């Protein structure tokens, strides 16, 4: 056998064993966590040298595996391989690979790794234990003290500030050395294949792209001894039934192993076969339908992201349905899924809810008939048969109220950023007129200030001189009473709505107003958000959302 044939045979043998190990890990996870069945078998395994020190990578469509690294990982601990697979699946369920909204990639990747590993570690409990779990729990406790609730946004902002701290300073004890320690604790896969990383087409492979055969590989030598022994050991374990590790259910022998794995019986083998058939059938098989065509922003999502969104929603439903069975073990996973599964709407589209139809003196290009215009010029030389209309019907915001909670619990910096965020949208949209009638009302337990803006071009001057007044208690009723008085006085003749930026810790009016009202809260990542009356709308917006003109809107009925 010549050198090239020997190398190819060795590579194929390693790829086959690596694929068997990954399948075994997925079966074990499915037996423990049946609600993850679709997620575990969503991606087809493809051997590829990841070349990053990690054995696994994904682009959301395929699971790329560096066979030699995986065999070494298997030799270290089969439980570590299982946790690697679960970590990678968590990334996809939370749609981390598809998020392109963060400008500091290293901070975002570290935040994603912390979220994925914390959810996986809490879900597993004492199952599939890792030697570093104790250190990870200690690190998570420290991170909670630094940023509050563990959410991707909170962690990203924390790591971003730490990485961009001025030279010679350390932000909250997170120097480069500590950040490197956190990365080594929570990283389990390579992220260079993520679509958000800008790898081009989904078919491109992760990492440092090279051909599968190592060009510098010659005949077998002493350096290959460890790999040969490992492959022989793995084959021997498979032949002997792997007495020290649970086997994937196979045919009639699946029953005893299934009973040992959390009460699963003989149908575990059939379930495993069925799921593997779904995975082999291709991306369109065995997953929830994408029939909901009216979802906001669907056109911007890739088919893989939509698939993972549907799978994540199914996992969330299954977990909530059987929450008593899983108890607190799945608490972190449920919280992360709820955050990830919240529908995201463009905040400018949300503001259009408060617009009204009106006529504007401008050329109406939409109703201009170019055919009759050019025909008239051709027929009469310089006389068109029809000219464009000089007025246009548009949806425009005119009479509008922005209420600001200036109680002590609301941060002044966030208030200013929210106002700037809202006004930037109004100025940027063509449908919003320069001539407006916007009241900016500051209120704590009573109305403290009311500033009227009649031209959007005056906003910059307003923001430069804006000062927060109040810092007392919180009561929403004075604003609604004050607005009603303005309407009775004719100050807001065509008012469509009011948005109220607050922390939600106040007294709401009992009676519903005859205009639309929305309460805007900062999204802190908590599982339970402030409640609002049935007649009001709820808007959750995080600090990143203020910066990137994106918010999460929830209708409350």
Give a brief outline of the structure.
The chain has 557 residues and is an alpha/beta fold.
Classification by helices and strands: alpha/beta
Rg calculated over all Cα atoms: 29 Å
Biggest sheet features: 8 strands, mixed
Global geometry: globular
What's the number of extended β-strand segments? Answer: 13
What proportion strand?
5-15%
In round numbers, the mean pLDDT is 75
Number of domains: 3
Low-confidence stretches: 200-225, 241-297, 548-557
Number of helices: 20
Overview of the molecule:
- The chain has three domains: 3-341, no CATH class; 348-355 and 398-554, von Willebrand factor, type A domain (Rossmann fold), CATH 3.40.50; 358-396, no CATH class.
- Helices cover 44% and strands 13% of the residues.
- The protein has helices at 3-32, 37-40, 67-76, 78-93, 105-124, 133-147, 152-163, 176-186, 225-240, 254-260, 267-281, 303-321, 323-326, 331-341, 347-351, 370-380, 412-428, 459-464, 477-488, 543-548, and strands at 44-47, 56-58, 62-65, 345-346, 356-360, 392-396, 399-405, 435-443, 447-455, 497-501, 516-522, 537-541, 550-554.
- An eight-stranded mixed β-sheet has the order 4-13-12-11-10-7-8-9. Strands 1-3-2 form a three-stranded mixed β-sheet.
- The termini are far apart.
What is the topology?
Layout: H1 3-32, H2 37-40, E1 44-47, E2 56-58, E3 62-65, H3 67-76, H4 78-93, H5 105-124, H6 133-147, H7 152-163, H8 176-186, H9 225-240, H10 254-260, H11 267-281, H12 303-321, H13 323-326, H14 331-341, E4 345-346, H15 347-351, E5 356-360, H16 370-380, E6 392-396, E7 399-405, H17 412-428, E8 435-443, E9 447-455, H18 459-464, H19 477-488, E10 497-501, E11 516-522, E12 537-541, H20 543-548, E13 550-554
